Amino acid sequence: MNANTRNSILQSGSAGFNIEWDVAGTHAPWMTGVYAADKALHKYGGPSPQFLQKYIPHLVKDGNYALGRAVSKGQPVAFVLFVKHGRSATYLTGWSEKDGQVSLAHHLLFWQGIKMLKEQGIKELDLGDVNNDNAKGIKEFKEGLGGRVVRHVGHYI
User: Fold this and answer.
1) Among 124, 82, 133, 84, which residue's Cα sits nearest to residue 106?
2) Residue 84, beta-bridge partner list
3) How far apart are the C-alpha atoms of 35 and 155, rounded to whole Å?
4) What share of the chain is helix, strand, coil (3-state, %, to 5)?
5) E strands, the chain, in order
6) What are 58-101's pLDDT values in tens digits?
7) pLDDT per residue over 35-57, tens digit each?
8) Of the chain's two ends, which shows fewer C-beta atoms within 10 Å, N or C?
């Protein structure tokens, strides 16, 4: 992890967030609603909300779902969704509203999530896609965590 990322995590830790981890799917309807609205507003890629609604119950049933929320003054300001598979996990999606962005809530959620996943025996974390054109800050954060870009062959049907 680079120094800037460590500093941003320390800074976010002093913001006074309450971090909640949902492994039972309790907050899944809230998350898919927030995600659907944000995805429509910002027109980014990622899984469709309809897919998530069908996928999450299976993840929960198998113990492979972890939704982290940063809460400030009783209101969620950010979330991260991790999916576990074997000894690995994938960051599937996330969101931060304005206050969450300013106070780097996502950074704290990622760090707490990494620690939690490690305690559960997870050895590898796929940080998800990078977008060089429209999300350079997210790419820099993922690289700051120690991530590296890996290119794969496309999918063909």
Assistant:
1) 82
2) 89
3) 25
4) 45, 25, 35
5) 18-22, 65-72, 75-85, 88-96, 124-126
6) 999 999 999 999 999 999 999 999 999 999 999 899 999 988 88
7) 999 999 988 888 999 999 999 99
8) C
| Angle between helix 49-61 and 28-42 (nearest 10) | 150
Instruction: Please name the helix (run of DSSP H) or strand (run of DSSP E) that holds residue 4, with its range, or none.
Output: helix 3-13
Which residue, among 55, 70, 57, has the nearest Cα to 24 in the 3D structure?
A: 57
Give yes or no for a contact between 106 and 91, defined as CB atoms under 8 angstroms apart: no
Look at the block and give the residue holding tokens 């039972």.
24
Start-to-end C-alpha separation, the chain: 38
